[in-house]
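Example 3.2
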Amino acid sequence: MGIADDAVEVRASGWRTLAALHGLIETALERELQAGHELSVVEYTVLDALSRQDGWHMRMAQLARAAALSSSATTRLVNRLEDRGLLRRILCEDDRRGIYTELTPAGSKTLGRARPTHDRVLESALQEAAEVPELAPLVAALTALPAAAR
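Structure, written as tokens:
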């Protein structure tokens, strides 16, 4: 095995570690958000992304990127959330072909109730992962990220 092969294996190992951490966190969040708030992780992500925007709206393409979904999956998700009254679609004033998604008061309220659960479960999952030797360095790096961004 050459140096290039070693580098590929290091990257692959890092990716597997990241995927394991992501899976651990997502499973815990999914269970608790569904049980306590009837929200999936991706639904929570969409509501959260919308809440962080000036004016509380985003174009559908921006929302797809924020939720890491395809445009068709985003449309289906927006349909479900709109049917539940958690967001609404509005036409873009500047470009009639553009559609924005906007958080409704009910969506904001649902997000407000779900956020403490999300934050508690995320913290707990990260603490659990920090006890796993293979995941501990990645958890430490994630914890250090906000400090480095300041």
